[in-house]
Amino acid sequence: MTYRPQEYWERTLSQQFDLRGTGEPGLPLAYNRACYELRREVLDRALRETGFDPRGKRVLDVGCGSGFWTAYYTGRGADYTGLDIAPVSIGRLKQAYPGSTFLLADVSEAGLEGTWDVVNVIDVLYHVTDDARWEAALGRLARAVAPGGLLLVTDLFETPAGLAEHNKMRPLARYRAVLDASGVRFEYAPLRPTHVLLNRHLGFWRFLNRAPGLLLALDRMLLALGLVPRRGTNRLLVAKRAG
């Protein structure tokens, strides 16, 4: 099957317009809620340690999907703009959040007008599988960050084998090369792991996926202790544009 991004995400979100549609569709909603709860906690900590409060700030959320980050940022008083490639996402979120702005666009093709204090690109860019389109998207997003603003991106930042057709991971060096070539100067914080056991193929131990509350508690402990595998772990890159 050839991966066609708009068709894929329109079909996926139409079938499951919740966290399964943007997370692990083959696992229960409770499992996906645990994964996203941990993502939220990691982002909370990153913003707090960066000294960044979203209240009153302009936020561009790329790949707004079923609206998890929409709720996150609007609930914190941000001036929110959501962007997605899937019409079902934009249509439903416009109805749910009439005070926010939503754009139907492919960030690898469409230009972005204006700048934002936060450009939130969580679990999105590794779904852009064509390298030229990925570079175009990342360059546009870099230039869309306002001076002093943040670019938030997640990836494995390595190149594992055996990925699904709609996934392609890139190493950190490639991200930094594109960002540095964008004409925008960024300061990079250390990568932050977003999960340990959650959001990971557990092999023989996959029966633990039926206990997402236990996995969430274990991940919180392992992240706090810094006991994170060096490979195969999704991580958050926080890049701050020089003011």
Secondary-structure topology with pairs:
Elements: H1 5-15, H2 19-22, H3 29-50, E1 58-62, H4 68-74, E2 79-84, H5 87-96, E3 101-104, E4 116-121, H6 131-143, E5 145-155, H7 172-180, E6 186-188, E7 192-193, H8 212-225, E8 235-241
Parallel strand pairs: 1-2, 1-4, 2-3, 4-5
Antiparallel strand pairs: 5-8, 6-8, 7-8
Helix pairs in contact: 3-8
Query: What would the CATH topology be?
Result: Rossmann fold
Q: Treating each run of at least 4 consecutive H or I residues as one helix, how many helices?
A: 8
In sequence order, what are the helices and strands, one letter per element?
A: HHHEHEHEEHEHEEHE
Number of discrete domains: 1
Give the end-to-end Cα distance, rounded to a whole number of Å: 45 Å
Low-pLDDT parts are none
Structural class: alpha/beta
Which range best describes the helical content: under 10%, 10-25%, 25-40%, 40-55%, 55-70% or over 70%? 25-40%
CATH architectural category:
3-Layer(aba) Sandwich
Please identify the top-level CATH class: Alpha Beta
Largest beta-sheet details: 8 strands, mixed
Give the CA-based shape. globular
In short:
Helices cover 37% and strands 18% of the residues.
Descriptive labels:
243 residues, alpha/beta, Rossmann fold
Characterise this structure.
By secondary structure, the protein is an alpha/beta fold. The chain has a single domain (5-241), classed as Vaccinia Virus protein VP39 (Rossmann fold, 3-Layer(aba) Sandwich). Helix content is 37%, strand content 18%. The chain has helices at residues 5-15, 19-22, 29-50, 68-74, 87-96, 131-143, 172-180, 212-225; strands at residues 58-62, 79-84, 101-104, 116-121, 145-155, 186-188, 192-193, 235-241. Strands 1, 2, 3, 4, 5, 6, 7 and 8 form an eight-stranded mixed beta sheet that branches. Helix 3 (29-50) runs parallel beside helix 8. The longest helix is centred in the N-terminal third of the chain and has 22 residues, at 29-50. The chain is globular and about 50 Å long. The model has no long low-confidence stretch (mean pLDDT 97).
